[in-house]
Description:
Layout lengths: L3 E4 L2 H6 L1 E6 L6 E2 L3 E10 L5 E10 L5 H12 L10 E8 L6 E8 L3 E3 H5 L14 H12 L1 H21 L2 E2 L8 E4 L4 E3 L6 E2 L25 H4 L8 H17 L8 H10 L10 H10 L11 H13 L11 H7 L4 H15 L16 H12 L8 H18 L6 H5 L12 H9 L6 H14 L4 H12 L14 H20 L3 H11 L16
Helix pairs in contact: 4-5, 5-7, 5-10, 7-9, 9-10, 10-20, 12-14, 13-14, 14-16, 17-18, 18-19, 19-20
Amino acid sequence: MPEIIRIQDIAERRQGIYYEFDASLPPLGEGGMGRVYSGYRVDTMRGNERRPVAIKCLRDGLPGHVIERARREASIRLRNDNLVEMLAFIEVRDNQSQAIRYHVVSELLNGVDINDMIDGKCTNTLSKGAPIAFVQEMKRLYDTDPYTFAIKVTKSVLSGLLALHQAGYIHRDIDPSNIMLTADGKIKLIDFGIAKLIDTLGTQDRGFTHDGQFIGKPNYAAPELVLGDIKHQDTTTDIYAVGIMLFQLIVGHVPFDGPMHEVLKMQQNKRIPLEQVRQRALRRIIDKATRKKQNERYGTATQFLVALEDLESRNLPYPDRSLPSWVGKVAIGGVASCVSIALVIFIIDLFDSQHEVVDNPSGGLTNQEVYENQLNLLHAGHSQSLDTLEMLAAKGVYEAAATLGVLYRDDEYSACLHTIPPGSTDSAAVFEIRRALHITPNPRLSHRFIEMAVNNNPQDYKMLIELAEDYLWPNDDTTGKNVMGTSQNLARAKALLGRARECAKENGDIRYTDIIDDKLNLDYLQNIEPNFEPSD
Length: 536
């Protein structure tokens, strides 16, 4: 028999609204706080209009601070395509026991969270075993193109965060389990259980958040969250978590894992292994989002979102899991060492001539075609067996570019000049070939090439930004002149960014103008005099 329970608080009574659910049916879910049922919001002012909702019935005997968290969660009532909509917090007194029952009401989401999707789950209680089409679509995308999947999810989360932050709240618990893929094609940030009003971060907020108290999930926790530094938790705290999640969705695992105390320590002082992200432009975005110092992260969700949209607009390729078809004739079927030898011979043959059509096993190719093929090869592969191919391809790209006089314009292109740095998966064969070909990591070479590009085209604002960032955040003495943080380096960076801004403005590129303004607003550039000319 149905056991219909109707709940209504004073505010709802005045509006002619009540909520109901059938307690005899299995709950949608059950946890430490209580059970969640599928129910309805009934509007008597509109002809008993019924809207499906989720009703969380809190358990008896929960501590007061837990009840207050639930009350605050229910109070965050925002309507946004990328946020779960909270509807009500209902208190009802039991007529028999006189105990007060608490209920949190939200929109009913028919979907699967990203953690479950990654594990292969595409159904839920509401779908009654039938796969949810949008979840299946996103699972296929994750399996075949994690880069596109990660960008799509992250942009949606940032869009929801923007609305949340503008309303004065920070989430503080962002991770894939709190992102729902719904049957109507939405990507929604859920669970505002530990969200907090920024204005109350300097207070005890009814006594249930204390300085020094860690809340959230260690794998996604910003340093200020790890320390329980309530006063300094702000929008950048959420930005950090989104950056960690973006890294995870790209590479397949979180940057730091292990026992909780070790992960918390690493979040405070260990560098994120960004070398696992195989595109320089994306690497830099994640790096900025996950800086240990808050003033070095994106200050707003908008800035992070603009950076991702700019990345998409440039259509930079991202390494996939298979080699281009033209490589197959050379590479397929060989072990790593055989493939390496074949490619050594192939690449040497390709560059015997500087300006003529080159004879090679793939037929007559122009140098432009050689360059494009080598660039494609550089973008290929994720497995250890392809490390040698990528290393040789990097050398091939550089030599082809030098032959053609090609000037790189985007991050991924300039990254080609960083001849593949040594990594944890290097094999003896890779080392021998690198030594034989005199291939060594050479950030100075890349820096010099970017300088040449700027000198050849002083109006190329994208390359001006690239050069400026070499001075702002050089890697392994990129410039070969000064160490990071010197006033001379900062002056160079500021001058380059100033010039880039003028060129972007002249070209009507508002997006890049905003990006450059963001960089010029860095704290450590404010008191620097831009007295450096890039051609020096």
